[in-house]
Design a protein that fits this description.
2 domains; 6-stranded mixed sheet; binds adenosine-5'-triphosphate; ATP hydrolysis activity
Length: 221
């Protein structure tokens, strides 16, 4: 379970957002929306420990991750978190297989997990290709396969379909929905009404609590 309590973020004198509260359980998928510049990426980056909030708490399984030591932050990123960026964030000069294998710590099932993940995103047989030879849609499917192979409990996806055509976007959203249904906490920053409709709740950055889309346990606190 992830809880955000009274979270605020300012850059200098500019307050992006303040007093954010939400609770999201495993098995739930939350859309984070709001106008360009509202601070969606910054919100995800605070949860992903890439940025620090100005005040408030982010609790994961009861522990305040904003107070983690350097070592605990590394462990959290390594063991819990999966990040999917609009810009893919792959190692371009490396192969598809290299980009996936780096995400799986357990050597014993590394090969099978990577194969399964590539099959799920429709890239079986492409293991030896270099990332920079792939199309944008294929690169995002590799990034998605990397998250699948890693099997994180918390997935942060920042505009994951922003640069994709309809078919590739559908693979990404269907897969994130499946991972959520399998028990992950999934948070997606998006401008897309379609993606908002696939989520259990919508959180508009700038408001203080999420709005329900369907029956779900996500609630403001
Ligand atoms: N390190 C920083 N220092 C100062 N300002 C920053 C920093 N990072 C982000 N900002 C500003 O914070 C605001 C919110 O940025 P952010 O990328 O979180 O917005 P967003 O809602 O994700 O936007 P978009 O929908 O366009 O991606 C922007 O005006 C940005 O310039």
């Amino acid at each position: 379970m992830l809880e955000v309590r009274n979270l605020s973020k300012s850059f200098g004198r500019r307050t992006l957002w303040s007093g954010l509260n939400l609770t999201i359980n495993g098995g739930e998928m939350l859309a984070v929306t709001g106008p360009s510049g509202a601070g969606k990426s910054t919100f995800l980056n605070c949860i992903g420990l890439l940025e620090s909030p100005t005040s408030g708490q982010i609790l994961y399984e009861g522990g305040d991750i904003t107070r983690f030591s350097r070592r605990a932050r590394c462990r959290f990123r390594r063991d819990v978190l999966g990040y999917l960026f609009q810009s893919y964030a792959l190692i371009e000069s490396a192969t598809v297989a290299d980009n996936l294998e780096i995400a799986v710590r357990n050597r014993r099932d590394r090969g099978s997990r990577c194969r399964e993940a590539l099959e799920r995103v429709g890239l079986t047989g492409r293991e030896k290709e270099k990332i920079h030879h792939l199309s944008g849609g294929e690169q995002q499917r590799v990034a998605l396969a990397r998250v699948l192979a890693k099997r994180p409990a918390l997935i942060l996806a920042d505009e994951p379909t922003g640069a994709l055509d309809k078919d590739n976007a559908a693979v990404v959203i269907d897969t994130l929905r499946e991972m959520s249904d399998a028990g992950c906490v999934v948070i997606v920053a998006t401008h897309s009404d379609y993606i908002c409709g696939r989520c259990d709740a919508i959180f508009t950055v700038g408001s203080t609590e999420p709005e329900q889309v369907a029956q779900s346990g996500i609630k403001g606190i």
